[in-house]
Amino acid sequence: MGIINNAQAISDITTVMTAFLDQQIAAGLLVSYGGINIKVDEVDPRQVNVEFDAQVVVPLLFTHVSFAVTAS
Q1: Rounded Cα–Cα distance for residues 16 and 21 (Å)
Q2: Which residues, 6+ apart, have CB-to-CB distance to 18 below 8 Å?
Q3: Would you put residue 25 in left (φ > 0), alpha (ψ -120 to 50) or beta?
Q4: Quick check: is 2 in a domain?
Q5: Which of 43, 48, 42 is nearest to 70 (CA)?
Q6: In which domain, by residue range, is 21 found?
Q7: Is 45 within the bounds of a domain?
Q8: How confident is the prediction along the chain (72 residues), in pLDDT tens digits per residue?
Q9: Which residues have CB under 8 Å from 31's CB, separation 6+?
Q10: DSSP annotation of 43
Q11: Cα pseudo-dihedral 66, 6, 1, 46, rounded to 10
């Protein structure tokens, strides 16, 4: 089971990612984050691509994270 890819689903995923990243800051694992970009994949509409930038606590400067979630 999954969710329908529509504007509400993208909004829900954005809300979950923001809450997750805020939790990582509260846990002391991240210093900051930004540039959250969530969109339906152009090739596979079952896939949602998630990207964001994060500054981790260990001195790695700034890290760009990108991953995809695919409904099956």
Answers
A1: 9
A2: 36
A3: alpha
A4: no
A5: 48
A6: 7-70
A7: yes
A8: 466 677 888 899 999 999 999 999 999 989 999 999 998 889 988 888 999 998 888 776 666 677 666 666
A9: 25, 55, 56, 57
A10: S
A11: -50
Cα 39 → chain centroid: 10
- What's the number of domains the chain is made of? 1
**Does any domain span residue 1?**
no
The owner of tokens 């606590």 is 57
Q: Considering the domain boundaries, does residue 48 fall inside one?
A: yes
Strand order in the sheet with 30-40: 30-40, 47-56, 63-70
Question: Phi/psi at 45 (nearest 5 deg)?
Answer: -65, -10
